[in-house]
Specification:
elongated, alpha+beta, disordered N terminus, 10-stranded mixed sheet, about 210 residues, two-stranded antiparallel ribbon
């Protein structure tokens, strides 16, 4: 009885997570990648129209769900860049973060040309890495020289400076490693007329 209860509890609690997951599959090898609910995505969507030479929408946000051919996300930022045949280039930027009662954004999977993804934990570590890198650089450039000055007689303690600079640069290296290690992974998505390939992915139907 206890075992049955555990199984039912696991299925009930796990259902929202499984529902929110989006799975993409390599069109040639069949390998799959699961994009979990709450992860951060950046979508590149081509824009077409009269006199448009090249146009793209780049939408950043938090993944909510993917079903029935639609990918739902909580948008954070959108940048639309359009180059017209006349040579005119136009760029519009919208910031959605902080807007109250903002409804989810739905994007047709067939419209997405390129997708990059980072898990929720990866996003947190990435931000921590950026913070450590920034603080390490500031410490090496500002704090280390200031801490090495002897303000009573105006002398400079080079030994103290190199100790401070060494610690600061070590922290910077750690931050850079965390930032690079948690960068978003990109996926080229197959669209109509595109051949299969080792770098081409498709959305897995549920």
């Amino acid at each position: 009885m206890a075992r049955l209860f555990c199984i039912v509890f696991t299925l009930i609690c796990g259902a929202p997570l499984l529902q929110g997951q989006v799975v993409i599959r390599n069109s040639l090898t069949g390998a799959t990648k699961t994009l979990k609910q709450g992860g951060y995505v950046t979508l590149s969507i081509p824009v077409s129209g009269p006199e448009v030479d090249c146009g793209y929408r780049k939408v950043k946000g938090k993944l909510l769900e993917g079903s029935k051919g639609l990918l739902q996300m909580e948008p954070k930022e959108e940048i639309k860049t359009i180059t017209f045949s006349s040579g005119l280039r136009k760029e519009d930027k919208a910031i959605y973060e902080g807007i109250n009662n903002l409804p989810p954004m739905s994007v047709a999977m067939t419209e997405i040309e390129y997708l990059s993804y980072r898990s929720n934990n990866g996003e947190n570590y990435h931000n921590i890495g950026l913070t450590i890198t920034t603080l390490g650089v500031l410490a090496a450039l500002v704090a280390a020289p200031l801490a090495s000055l002897n303000y009573s007689d105006g002398t400079f303690n080079s030994g103290r400076y190199f100790r401070w600079a060494g610690i600061s640069l070590g922290a910077t290296g750690l931050g850079v490693a965390m930032t690079l290690g948690t960068k978003k992974r990109g996926f080229q998505l197959q669209r109509s007329g595109m051949e299969t390939g080792r770098k081409i992915w498709v959305f897995q139907e549920k």
